[in-house]
Amino acid sequence: MTFSIAFVAGVTPTKWTRIWAERFPEIPLEVFRTDSANPTEQVTVLRDERADVSLVRFPVDTTGLGLINLYTEIPVVVAAKDHAIAAVDESGSVPLELLADEHLLQDPDTIPEWRDIATEVRDGSRRALPRMHDLDDLMEQVAAGVGIAILPHSLARLHNRKGVISRPVEGVVETQIALAWLAEAKTPNVEEFIGIVRGRSAASSRGATVVVRGEPVKKEKATAKAKAAAKLAREEAAKKKPAPAKKKPGAIQNRTRASAAARNKRRGSR
After folding, report:
1. What is the rounded distance in angstroms from the CA atom of residue 101 to the CA atom of residue 167?
2. Residues 90 and 220 placed together within one structural domain of the fold
3. Which family does the entry's similarity section mention (predicted)?
4. Which residue, among 118, 177, 116, has the nearest Cα to 148 in the 3D structure?
5. Which of residues 117, 150, 170 is at a domain's end?
6. What single DSSP character describes residue 181?
7. What pLDDT shows up at residue 225?
8. Which positions of the chain have pLDDT values less than 70?
9. 105 and 187 share a domain?
10. Last residue of a domain, which of 118, 151, 170?
11. What is the CATH number of the domain that holds 123?
């Protein structure tokens, strides 16, 4: 029985899959990337049971999903290397207002902050987009100077190519990355992966049942481990504790003589 993890382009699940492999070597992983050209596939893989969990980038249809927000990605503007944004230091950022007169090589509705100030949208001069099948095609158009794009930083880095530069852009909301699963299909294995993503250690496991090759195996509870460790510590401490000192024979004799003298004194007073 495998555990399937889907992830959207730009997300790196390696740190979580490595921990899973260490803790549950009996349960093989299937890890695959969803189609970046079809954003709805991020959750479709859950609904058609191709994946147990999916690392998604918002916006997605959250109907019936359980979600954990993981982190946000800063937006960057990508343009040809001779574009005016090249004058901005790499540690700096570009105010969105400076991009109002640019041609965006994306659906304006996907970047509503730009859409609301764009000159070509306001005056109706916006021209049709060239045919592009994926982000690699988009980057080709950017490198050719046809227009700009505004992307999450991880995607811009993943599809970076010669002839393209990028700078952080101010005024565009950051993108949310989350872990998603079908709420009605929250299996013990899904629970375990959620725990890994949340940073739960192996020692702090909640003792859930993990399915291994179809056989339920009860994990040892952390409390039982703690009790065993405490018992071992007590035994070790008992071994190190010094034995009680032996009393000297003379002291015992003196005490005995004193007791005998006291008895004789009481008899004499009768």
Report:
1. 17
2. no
3. Belongs to the LysR transcriptional regulatory family.
4. 118
5. 170
6. E
7. 53
8. 204-233, 236-270
9. no
10. 170
11. 3.40.190.10
Q: What is the pLDDT of residue 210?
A: 40
- Tell me what pLDDT residue 252 has: 40
Alpha carbon 182 to its chain centroid, in Å, reads: 18
- Dihedral of CA atoms 227, 232, 233, 234 in degrees, nearest 10, equals 90
Q: Are residues 57 and 85 in the same domain?
A: no
Strand partners, 253: none
Q: Are residues 141 and 186 in the same domain?
A: no
* Residues 109, 187 within the same domain: no
Give me the number of domains the chain comprises: 2
| pLDDT at 251 (0 to 100) | 45
Q: What pLDDT sits at residue 160?
A: 93
The amino acid at residue 238 is A
Question: 79 and 43 in one domain?
Answer: no
Q: Looking at the structure, do residues 153 and 201 belong to the same domain, yes or no?
A: no
Residue 33: closest CA among 52, 54, 15: 54
Residue 100 DSSP class:
T
Instruction: Give pLDDT, residue 1.
Output: 85
- Kindly report the CA angle at 46 between 43 and 48, in degrees rounded to 5? 110
Which tens digit of pLDDT belongs to each residue from 104-124? 999 999 999 999 999 999 999
Neighbours of 158 (CB within 10 A): 16
Predicted TM-score of the model (pTM): 0.72
Taking a C-beta distance cutoff of 8 angstroms, is the pair 51, 181 a contact? no
Other Cβ atoms closer than 10 A to 226: 11
Instruction: Give the pLDDT confidence of 31-60 residue by residue, as tens digits.
Output: 999 987 788 999 999 999 999 999 999 999
Task: Please state, in angstroms and rounded to a whole number, the distance separating the CA atoms of residues 102 and 84.
Answer: 11
Domain that holds residue 149: 75-170
